[in-house]
Amino acid sequence: MTPNETHKKTPNTAPVIEIKGLYKTFGKDNHVLNGVNFSVAKGENLVVLGRSGSGKSIAIKCLVGLVKADKGEVNVFGKNIVKFNENQLNEIRLRIGFLFQNGALYDSMSVRQNLAFPLMRHSTELTAKQVDNAIKETLESVGLTEAIDKMPSELSGGMRKRVGLARTLILKPEVLLYDEPTTGLDTITSREISDLILSIQKKHQTTSIIITHDMACAKLTADRLVILKDGIIEAEGTYEALEKSNDAWVRSFFS
Hints:
The chain is of the alpha/beta class. The chain contains nine helices and ten strands.
């Protein structure tokens, strides 16, 4: 086992997330999800692979109710959220952090203000000093304390990703959803973001789903991988096992 693989483990706890028979069609003929089944255990990093249009992003959007499934179960924290109303979904969403591809920062706000915004909205009982301490502590955890008063336009792509992650972390989510966390970054910065994903998993015991086309990120961060094809899970296993699969299509992701 290499040093980068020492985090990998076989989870033995009940799933935090469990998707059963998930279907989603757009229009008449665009069948994106055709009976997807997978689960994620507490503290596990699950990487989701698949060609463009395979339904990866739609599946995780169903997890937070951004897309409504046509059929199936989406069990999060032991509750099937498919028929939840907006208030019930918002309660679940507070326990889930979603890191979008572009970081989704407010360009008119400084880094400090970007991080203060969700705290002031959802933790109204905090004092100004408590908010400030939380911002500094969270920025320290992503290695960006020096950027606290900068504007997003002053940040590199990698720094924007880190700030986006910090803003997600500041509400202390139990689950993190990463949508292409290393897209558009150079090799060194991509490795730094992958290392940060592992650091957060270890420090905060988060449960994470990572959608990526970056196989270096997948190899470094995944406890387990699933591969989507034609709206279903075509393969599942560790990076090392899938890399040696007898299926040429599965192996094509690793070549």
